[in-house]
Amino acid sequence: MAGGLDDTLEENDTLEGVFVGTLDENDTLDDILADKILEVIQENPGKTQAEIAQCINTSVRTVKRLMKRLTEREIVVRVGRKRFGKWEIRR
After folding, report:
1. Which of 23, 47, 53, 55 is a good FRET partner for 3, with 20 to 30 A between their CA atoms?
2. How far is CA 1 from CA 8, 55, 78, 79, in A?
3. Can you give the C-alpha Rg of the chain in angstroms?
4. In the beta sheet, which residues pair with residue 87?
5. What average pLDDT does range 30-34 have in this prediction?
């Protein structure tokens, strides 16, 4: 995927493990997708959930479910209004 996450994030810039600690062979697909969502948000906090889904090649429903989990754990919060707001990562 041209212009994807692998092209723009350096090894030290990733957010791997923010959701579950550190990624290893025991992580679920949700854990991996949640970390990819965080990488997309870090790159562009203004992306919509539909745009995030397109970036990580998954469904909008999956992104909505994982974003709900991330917001419940206060890892991600929405700042501003629905249309012109942005996502903010809190560690």
Report:
1. 23
2. 11, 9, 27, 29
3. 12
4. 78
5. 91
In angstroms, the first-to-last Cα distance of the chain is 28
**Contact present, 62 and 53 (Cβ < 8 Å):** yes
- Taking alpha carbons only, the member of 30, 2, 34 closest to residue 15 is 34
H helix or E strand, kind and range, residue 11? none
pLDDT of residue 82: 82
CA 26 to chain centre: 19
Alpha-helical (H) ranges within the chain are 5-8, 29-43, 49-55, 60-72
The predicted model gives 40-54 an average pLDDT of: 95
pTM of the model: 0.70
